[in-house]
Every structure is written in structure tokens, then in C-alpha cells.
Amino acid sequence: MKKDSELYKKIRVHCYIVGLIAFLTALIVGVFLLHNLEKDEKTTGKYMAQITEKRVRARLDQYSMLSALLENYISAGENLDENTFSELAEKIPNEDGVIKAFELAPEGIVTDIYPKQGNEGAFGLDMLQEHERKKDAILARGSGKSTSDNYDTLIISDI
């Protein structure tokens, strides 16, 4: 009986040791897998951010190149009447609606806007005086280039 008791103690100690080793092994494997999963998530996040940045840059470049059409027309000394401005602005692809309006603002005063519907309030607006758009209008005037403001509007300036 004494031998059986010692045998049970040895078996119990071995079971504890084997259980502890199994637990530690599972813990180490779990930490390793969690670390790899976190690393994969970070890599995926960086990749998605880079892809998104490239798409945004490409879209902005597209809008810049297309708005150059109107800028060149103005630079060539052509006067844009209401119909010509609307026809040219309409031809600029904007299928996802990023640009909500195209504005022509000689001397900082909005004289034409496309589309007119829903933007009637912008006619006659002095962007060089209105504080919310003043910075973008001054940038357009100073650079001689179009700018996009915080209101999703492309400002085309010949100021």
C-alpha cells in the first residue's frame, strides 16, 4: 500500500509537470500566433493606407489636369460666357461627385457656377472677403491656378 501511495505521488507529480509543460507550450504558441496576427494586421493596414493614398492622389491629379482645360481657356485670353463655362465644366468627369461645383471667380467674385441648381447662393460671392473661403481664393489668385476648397468646390480664378 505504501508502494501504491508513492507510485500515485510520482504519477501525480509527473502529471503536474506534463500539464505545466503543455500549458507553457500552448501559451508560447498562442503569444507567437497573436504576434504574427498583429503583424499581419499592421501590414494589411499599411497596404490599404498606401492604396487609398494612391487612389486619392490619382483622382486629385485627374481633377487637376481636367481643370487645367478651363484654366488654359482663360489664360488664352478667351472670355468665358455662361454657356461656354457650363459646357466646359460639364465635360470634366466627376462621376463620383467629389467636386460639388465649379466656380469662375474673376477678381474674386463668383460670376459663374456649374451646376447652377442648388448653388444659386454662391453667385456674386466675394471670396476674397468671405472669411471661410478667403484662404483658398487668395491661393488661387496668387498661384494663378485653380484650387479646391473645403466645400468640395473647384475655384477657377483669373484674378
Describe this structure in words.
The protein is α+β, with helices and mostly antiparallel strands and 159 residues long. The protein has one domain (2-156). 59% of the residues lie in helices and 8% in strands. The protein is built from 3 helices and 4 strands; from the N terminus they run H-H-E-E-H-E-E. The chain has helices at 2-75, 82-91, 134-143, and strands spanning 101-104, 112-114, 147-148, 153-156. The protein has a 4-stranded mixed beta sheet, sandwiched between helices. Strand 3 and strand 4 (153-156) form a beta hairpin. The mean pLDDT is 77.
List the main descriptive attributes of the protein structure presented here:
159 residues; four-stranded mixed β-sheet; alpha+beta
Distance separating the two termini = 106 Å
Q: Per the principal axes of the C-alpha atoms, what is the gross shape?
A: rod-shaped
Q: Using only CA atoms, what is the Rg?
A: 33 Å
**Overall pLDDT:** 77
* Main sheet characteristics: 4 strands, mixed
Element order: H for helix, E for strand: HHEEHEE
Strand content: 5-15%
Q: What is the tally of helical segments?
A: 3
Count of domain modules: 1
Give the helix/strand class.
alpha+beta
Strand tally is 4
State the gist of this model.
This protein is α+β, with helices and mostly antiparallel strands and 159 residues long. The chain has helices at 2-75, 82-91, 134-143; strands at 101-104, 112-114, 147-148, 153-156. It has a 4-stranded mixed β-sheet with strand order 2-1-4-3, with helices on both faces.
